[in-house]
Amino acid sequence: MSFTIFIIQTVFSLLTMLLLLRAWMQFARVDFYNPLSQFVVRFTQPVIAPLRRIIPSIGPIDTASVFLAYVMIILKLVLLTLVIEPTLVLSPTYLLIALVMLIKAIGKMIFWALIMLAIMSWISRGSSPIEFALAQLTDPILKPIRRILPDTGPLDFSVMAAMFILLALNYLGTDITTSIGMASYWVGG
Length: 189
Description:
Elements: H1 2-28, H2 35-54, H3 63-84, H4 93-123, H5 129-148, H6 158-179, H7 184-188
Helix pairs in contact: 1-2, 1-3, 2-3, 3-4, 4-5, 4-6, 5-6
């Protein structure tokens, strides 16, 4: 049973992250010809293209990708519930839990993009197209923080401040889901 849970969590989490990454790339206006952008678009295009006819984008927000990511999270919750406790009745609370999980998935994606950007800045020093895409992705998050924090020269504390904010919001999301009656296990996976 743990193998099935692992497969469900991994597959649905990866698909959700790709869909959210696509939406975030459109929002942040990441260079479309970047190799990372091309990979994400090619992987998600077969599903997103027909869905966009029904659910158009709202400004810079790719609502089709976000909606499909939300559906993936709901399916993941339902499948995990059926595997763990087949007699458990599904409730409308799953929609709220899935929304909180969607927000947490966005936070996780931003968190890992910040970590990868920091590591790549030490290794490639601006010469990698992936680092360029990561910088474009994280710029909408880091720019407001950089305006608030004092300039410290070569050390950029905005990444640490953003990570601290994301961790605090993650704990808040866990508190919210636990208070509406769902174990924090669901939110973490």
